[in-house]
Amino acid sequence: MTKQIELSGVNKYYGAYHALKNIDLSIEKGSFVALVGPSGCGKSTLLRSLAGLESISTGDLKIAGELMNNVPPRKRDIAMVFQSYALYPHMTVEQNLTYSLRIRGVAKAEAKKAAEEVAATTGLSHLLGRYPRELSGGQRQRVAMSRAIIRHPKAFLFDEPLSNLDAALRVHMRKEIRTLHDRLHATSVYVTHDQIEAMTMADHVVVMKDGVIEQQGAPLELYDRPANKFVAGFIGSPAMNFVPATVGEDGRSLAVDIGEKQTIPLDRQLQPGRKVTAGLRPEHLHFVEPGQGVFRLPVGIVETTGSATYITTSTATEVTVVDTTRRPVGAGDVIDVSIRPADVHIFDAETGLRV
Amino acid sequence: MTETNRNRLMLLIAIVMAAIYLFPLYWMYITALKSGSEMFATPPTFWPSVPQWSTYAFVWESRGMGRYLWNSLIIASGAVVLITVLGVGCAYVLARYRNGWVDIGLFLILMLQVLPASLMITPIFVGFSQLGMLDYPRLAVIIAIAAKSMPFFVVLVRATFMAVPMELEEAALVDGNSRVGAFFHIVLPLARNGILVSAILIFMQAFGEFVYSKSIIQDIELQPASVGLNSFMGPNTNEWNNIMAYATIYVTPILAIFVLLQRRIVSGLTSGAIK
């Protein structure tokens, strides 16, 4: 596997503001990488730096092995799909698609042929003569994608491309983008604030916060072994429950404080008396017969979606439980739940790092 | 009061206001067609009994209006070209870069707009005379008008540029264009309407400009129509029909341009000329 994009020790300052802090990231050729994080985490800045729309302050940025620090966007041979699609309003779909080719001096007939080929694969053939304002949101999205594809660039950069679409279309386009990526054997970097998009589409997810890469890895790796409390809370929906806890005197149990103290067994040895935070995923809390569980929890709010029931407890530290068995539960009931020791995530109470 | 009645009342008020506003224009047109005695008749007539069409030909010939209008056209066109070429670049920079210096620049530009022409003419006249520019009086007036109207143009066109999303330019950069190429391919075509409208407004202003032309251009051969109209006036002026005929010939082309382009001008001023 060759590295298509390599960042080492990249920093970006806006005046005194430190937007990207020591970013190290290497992206394999043909992989689909998602940059995910809350707004203001630097993921868009990172993407724009790859495109050359922002310059990096220090560090090295290589695309296909070439140092690109001071190379203008037009010489980087990358394509970008913008959040607003950024279609040229005064050009038809065909002109939008062929713009990059025309700048490079590709012959008219050849550019037209390329546009027709790409349009055929993205289902735009009948729209080539239209202007962007005459298209629906999904069609504009496809034009933006096609405009990137037509150039066979070294990498595709996506800047939250689905956030302007409605929910159903978003799920559909998610699959379409991934299919396209696989068919073109392209290298893609995809920025999103939606962890579900990142998890479902990417081979490699990079979680960022405040300009720092908190963790990167395969989607399930992040879900199964979050490196810290932030990643644990960010990945997974509904979000992980965090409850304060203390390691028992034997070092193999955990006293959990959800309103009332309850003890759960541990599958590993920890320092007795250590203050920690226990992370319990809502989907890992299972209903058990009364008296069999490790938690007895009073029910506060019940939300049903049909496929799953979200139960929020009325304890001092709120806990969410997801149930897919359609067990009848109402507010005010007391439920008995259990969790496998292996499913308990433990984080240091102060640093938030995985223990 | 029902909805329909209120709408009717509003319409009535609008018509009355429009009538008051347009009355001088109407009066100009009909006075130009009146005979010498009818002009001073009491009560005044609101429609000339015998329209005197020959007044136009007489004024055109006797005042040499062809030459005046030609000078006005040269001065207005020159000012528009100068302002457009310089102002578009200036407006673009002010729209795209934001920092303290740009804010100061913008403030100074707006300051310039505040100063009246009659105040500015003295220093301009002295300066031009030192530079020997009074030997080229029409060029001198073009430059003076350009300096005077540039802020107005820059502020309008800057708003137009700001309405062109930055992402479009970035898309063009990533697509392989240079900054300059992106400006000419993407930004300029999208801002075209706003620039055109601002240029037309500048043209109309410059076509009627008086203070600079009157002060700088001494030679009758080179004076624009606004100065020519003024030379009609005197303490004992009574040939109002001739003056109004002159005014009619002077403003009708401008009015026609405005009416023809009015929809574009209004939309160009309010929207950002995008879509």
From TrEMBL, chain A:
It is found in: Cell inner membrane. InterPro entries: AAA+_ATPase, ABC_transporter-like_ATP-bd, ABC_transporter-like_CS, ABC_transpr_MalK/UgpC-like, Mo/tungstate-bd_C_term_dom, NA-bd_OB-fold, OB_MalK-like, P-loop_NTPase. Keywords: ATP-binding, Cell inner membrane, Cell membrane, Membrane, Nucleotide-binding, Sugar transport, Transport. The keyword Nucleotide-binding applies. Pfam families: ABC_tran (PF00005), OB_MalK (PF17912). One of its GO terms (cellular component) is ATP-binding cassette (ABC) transporter complex, substrate-binding subunit-containing. One of its GO terms (molecular function) is ATP binding. It is a peripheral membrane protein. Residues 5-235 form the ABC transporter domain. Belongs to the ABC transporter superfamily. This is Multiple sugar transport system ATP-binding protein.
From TrEMBL, chain B:
Its main location: membrane. It is found in: Cell membrane. Keywords: Cell membrane, Membrane, Sugar transport, Transmembrane, Transmembrane helix, Transport. Pfam families: BPD_transp_1. The keyword Hydrolase does not apply. It comes from the Bacteria. One of its GO terms (cellular component) is plasma membrane. GO terms for biological process: transmembrane transport. CDD domains: TM_PBP2 (cd06261). The chain crosses the membrane at residues 9-30, 68-94, 106-128, 140-161, 182-204, 243-261. It is a multi-pass membrane protein. The keyword rRNA processing does not apply. Residues 69-261 form the ABC transmembrane type-1 domain. PANTHER family: MALTOSE TRANSPORT SYSTEM PERMEASE-RELATED (PTHR32243), MALTOSE_MALTODEXTRIN TRANSPORT SYSTEM PERMEASE PROTEIN MALG (PTHR32243:SF50). Belongs to the binding-protein-dependent transport system permease family. MalFG subfamily. Part of the ABC transporter complex MalEFGK involved in maltose/maltodextrin import. Probably responsible for the translocation of the substrate across the membrane. This is Maltose/maltodextrin transport system permease protein MalG. It comes from Rhizobium giardinii. The lineage of its organism: Bacteria, Pseudomonadati, Pseudomonadota, Alphaproteobacteria, Hyphomicrobiales.
